[in-house]
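Researcher: Here's a chain I'd like modeled. Treat it as a single chain, no partners, no ligands.
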Amino acid sequence: MILINKILTIRPRHDAKLPYHLTSDPMNLSFLCAQTVGVPKEKAISENSFATVCDLLLPPVGNKAPTPIQLNVYGKAAERFARVPAGAQIYIHGSKLRYDLNSKTYSLQGGIVTQVDTAFPILNTVVLSGRCVKDIDQEDARAFKTTADGLMICNQTLSVNTGRNQADLFNFYAINAAEDKLNNAELLVNFTRKGTGLSIQGKLVTDSWVDKETKEKKNLTKIQLVSMTLAPKGNTESKPITSQTTVASSTDVGSLWGGKVAEDLAEPWGSQHGASLPDLPGYAMAGANDDSDPPF
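Model: Modeled as a single isolated chain. Structure tokens:
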């Protein structure tokens, strides 16, 4: 039981400023269930630091194919992950999603990993914030189209800052029927432009098909949009803050979870000011309009 015996009153400071790393870092978090393809292996990422790396398969979503992805874990979480056998079912909490334009592959960096069983629910959630890199051309079927059965499909690309003037590009799409209450595809068309700030929640999904000419099997992984939030428009007029917030506090908090504490997310780049994600090749913004992928 938590005893509330003191009330703190917080008055906002008009001159208060957030540290740079709090105001500029984008949201990039993934919460996923997966199966290990092989045994996790240790890999050197610098002279003094190592990561535990393993190829994974995410369970298919609907009629889609399983999604292949590589997981890189660091710190204490890496030590535990190294003991996970091949074919194990795992849950990944709070990992960062990366995309390599050169190899066109996704990877996961950091997070907390735990082994689970079949009773654990299958989770597939990605949360990203950034800026849209293009205007949507409604005349281009690769960007927007409607189907004969009334479906509306829209394709957009989100640039997510990774630090040091670098960014990852994530292709995502929205699909809805005309009678759906939540028309994400229509919202993307009407309200997103090049430079629009956007936060999205989605799922990693993979399409699989056989190329008609080469007869080779191909895969394409994208983010299927679930919900989105447009960034607020800037306001040049300063308004005084007059409200007050009261926060319940206590000096006597009972033991929770047997005295255990939550674990910090282990990341190789640390938590110091100015820290950023490790580099990946191929950050050129030109990749946002790559025409080699089949439409949707």
